[in-house]
């Protein structure tokens, strides 16, 4: 592990509900990775999709992180404060023909096989409102994921960067903000692995300094279902913070000493950072929790 490399990491939850075990594990792994590299760990609230957000979920997420000792090294950036920047970037992309308007419906894309075939890419539409798509240069077809190894994808499409309803797309906001915040290391859930190459193709338009990516396994129940807000994974109880962290560390294959357990959360996290420095190897894409 190279401790001389500057490291800025982040955890970027969407406030669509309180944290559950899977998202706590993601927060913890990104935190441990940052601290093991003597890096900076930031939290960014990805609140750009109001229809999918719950009132106060941001507060609940922050309270849970705090209760579990996961304290960011800087102010929390709310994506809702960044709308002007997203809009300016889209205008710039459109003006330089790096993006275009698209009026295709979901049904049409589904009928075309599910991957957007670029139907509107040469139409020079001016229709408004309409979705806006990034003209994917397809320069990047693979990357080395620190946890998962070589990832390759040739399933390129021109992804939506602004939806027809005017909302900015996650894929645009995440890239612009990671660049703006100087993020060097992205540690996040493996459910985002399939969009990573598309994000990198957008990233390279704005910056040639790519981050390192590492995707953590998904937590699934014994019948193979992903633990997520959507399937009502139970919210984390902050009263049990120490046990929750210990449980997550067990899932990561770490044995925390009785001594650290007795001394409390700060000691447990410190010991976990030491373990992490010695190397972490994820056996598979999924961890089954019972
Ligand atoms: N906001 C995204 C989510 O909660 C994560 C974004 C990211 O880590 O790139 O799924």
Give me some keywords for this one.
290 residues; alpha/beta; Rossmann fold; five-stranded parallel β-sheet; three-stranded antiparallel β-sheet; 9 helices; 35% helix; 16% strand; elongated; binds glutamic acid
Characterise this structure.
The structure is a single chain. The longest helix is centred in the first third of the chain and has 16 residues, at 21-36. This protein has nine helices and twelve strands. It is elongated and about 65 Å long. It has helices at residues 21-36, 57-67, 83-95, 106-111, 170-180, 193-206, 241-251, 258-263, 265-277; strands spanning 8-11, 40-45, 77-78, 99-102, 131-134, 142-145, 149-152, 160-162, 185-189, 212-216, 218-220, 286-288. The model has no long low-confidence stretch (mean pLDDT 92). α2 (57-67) links the parallel β2 (40-45) and β3. The protein has a five-stranded parallel β-sheet with strand order 3-2-1-9-10. Strands 4-5-8 form a three-stranded antiparallel β-sheet. The chain starts with 7 loop residues before the first strand and ends with a strand. The chain has one domain (8-288): Rossmann fold (3-Layer(aba) Sandwich). The chain is an alpha/beta fold and 290 residues long. Bound molecules: glutamic acid (GLU). Glutamic acid is lined by residues 12-14, 46, 174, 188, 192.
């Amino acid at each position: 592990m190279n401790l001389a490399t500057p490291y800025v990491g982040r955890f970027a939850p969407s406030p669509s509900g309180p944290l559950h075990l899977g998202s706590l594990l993601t927060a913890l792994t990104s935190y441990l990775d940052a601290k093991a590299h003597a890096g900076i760990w930031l939290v960014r609230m990805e609140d750009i999709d109001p229809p999918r957000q719950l009132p106060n979920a941001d507060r609940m997420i922050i309270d849970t992180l705090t209760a579990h000792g996961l304290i960011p090294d800087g102010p929390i950036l709310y994506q809702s404060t960044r709308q002007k920047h997203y809009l300016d970037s889209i205008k710039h992309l459109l003006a330089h023909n790096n993006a275009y308007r698209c009026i295709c419906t979901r049904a049409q894309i589904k009928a075309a096989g599910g991957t957007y075939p670029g139907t509107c890419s040469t139409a020079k539409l001016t229709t408004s409102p309409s979705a806006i798509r990034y003209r994917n240069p397809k320069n990047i077809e693979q990357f080395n994921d620190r946890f998962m190894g070589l990832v390759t994808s040739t399933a390129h499409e021109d992804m939506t960067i602004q939806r027809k309803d005017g909302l900015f797309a996650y894929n645009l906001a995440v890239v612009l903000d990671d660049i703006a915040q100087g993020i060097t290391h992205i540690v996040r859930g493996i459910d985002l692995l399939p969009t990573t190459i598309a994000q990198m193709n957008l990233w390279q338009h704005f910056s040639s300094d790519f981050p390192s990516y590492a995707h953590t396994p998904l937590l699934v129940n014994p019948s193979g279902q992903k633990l997520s807000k959507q399937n009502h994974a139970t919210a984390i109880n902050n009263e049990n913070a120490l046990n929750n962290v210990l449980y997550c560390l067990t899932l990561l294959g770490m044995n925390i000493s009785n001594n650290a357990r007795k001394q409390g959360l700060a000691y447990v996290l410190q010991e976990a950072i030491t373990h992490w420095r010695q190397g972490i190897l994820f056996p598979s894409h999924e961890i089954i929790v019972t």
